Amino acid sequence: MGRVEDKVCLVTGGGSGLGRADAIALAKEGAKVVITDINKENGEEAAHAAGNGAIFLEHDVAEEDQWQLVIKQTLDHFDELNVVVNNAGMFIPGSVEEVTWDQYRIHQRIHMDGAFFGIKYGIETIKANGKLGAIVNIASTTALLGYHTSFAYGACKGAIRTMTSHAAIHCQQLRYNIRVNCIFPSVIQTPLIEKLYADAAAAAESAWC
Ligand SMILES: NC(=O)c1ccc[n+]([C@@H]2O[C@H](COP(=O)([O-])OP(=O)(O)OC[C@H]3O[C@@H](n4cnc5c(N)ncnc54)[C@H](O)[C@@H]3O)[C@@H](O)[C@H]2O)c1
Q1: How confident is the model at residue 209 (pLDDT cuts 50, 70, 90)?
Q2: For residue 184, how far is its CA from the centre of ligand 1 (angstroms)?
Q3: If phi over 0 gives left and psi between -120 and 50 gives alpha, with beta otherwise, what is residue 30?
Q4: Would you say 156 and 107 are in contact if contact means Cβ atoms under 8 Å apart?
Q5: Predicted TM-score of the model (pTM)
Q6: Is the CB of 15 under 6 A from ligand 1?
């Protein structure tokens, strides 16, 4: 029997990188996985790779009405929800002097608004079945340390860290059977990091030309 046998686990940004790996690992441990992503092709491929009846739902985590639809589709398909992994993300490098308002807002929408909706609708939905549930928020070491080129990203990851603490205490106070935790990965080779390195290498090369 797997460690999450028959738990319904929703992974945002599950079409690539860490989310894809999470989805595959959860399915291997017996979970019924819902992969959501803005990238339909990658999301469908990840659901196929995960197996065990995993499904893909197209979903922009920054849009509240899309969260409401994804929760409804999950309940229609699997009857309940037990775990939400708030993983979807992106990264545009930039110091506090370099970052534009638009770049700052994009980070806020995807990371902060996305995590806010995921935590809010996750708690509302998981508490309804009364069983043990979990919300896992993917932050970053940029939530804990200062980095020269991660101002907007780090600000949002710091906010996710704080949202996690408040939501966890809320669930404990109201005796909900829901754990809310945060993970702080360092650098892991995924398409996000590969693009970052490729862009940096291209910029260095053009500086020499
Ligand atoms: N890779 C690392 O080194 C690292 C380190 C610390 C934290 N993280 C965090 O881990 C998470 C996953 O990163 P990754 O490295 O796997 O990146 P990735 O680019 O490989 O995957 C991110 C996924 O999120 C999806 N996504 C982007 N915007 C979305 C939106 N608005 N709605 C739904 N899906 C959306 C993308 O389509 C993609 O499939 C992110 O939150 C990232 O900030 C990654």
Answers
A1: low
A2: 13
A3: left
A4: yes
A5: 0.97
A6: yes
